[in-house]
Design brief:
This protein is an alpha+beta fold and 99 residues long. It has helices spanning 12-16, 33-44, and strands at residues 5-8, 22-27, 48-56, 60-65, 68-73, 77-84.
Length: 99
């Protein structure tokens, strides 16, 4: 179950969603909403109300090197937006409330 959740997404937009009991995670591309819900409930000991997922396409990248122009792309990812039930929260960044 733990392999499904790769990492929490810690951006300004994702941190502002925490006020609405919503959190963003990068998950395994082959995982389903039910598997994500079970993994979050087991890992963080909370109750999940809703899970929304989306696939993020890789971006084209180009850079100039001594050997010439190199082209590539970033990898494909899958995000999950998880809404928790009333009364539950997740402390993603330790020390964020200490400021």
């Amino acid at each position: 179950m733990i392999e499904i959740i790769k990492r929490p997404i810690i951006t300004e937009k994702a941190m502002n969603m925490g006020h609405h009991r919503q959190y963003a995670f990068e998950v395994d591309r082959d995982s389903t909403k039910i598997q994500i819900k079970q993994a979050i409930e087991e890992l963080y000991e909370v109750k999940v109300d809703n899970v929304r997922t989306l696939n993020v396409k890789g971006k084209n990248k180009t850079r100039f090197t001594r050997k010439g122009l190199q082209r590539g792309f970033t990898k494909l990812r899958k995000k999950a937006y998880v809404t928790l039930k009333e009364g539950f929260s997740i402390e993603i960044v330790s020390g964020a409330q200490e400021e």
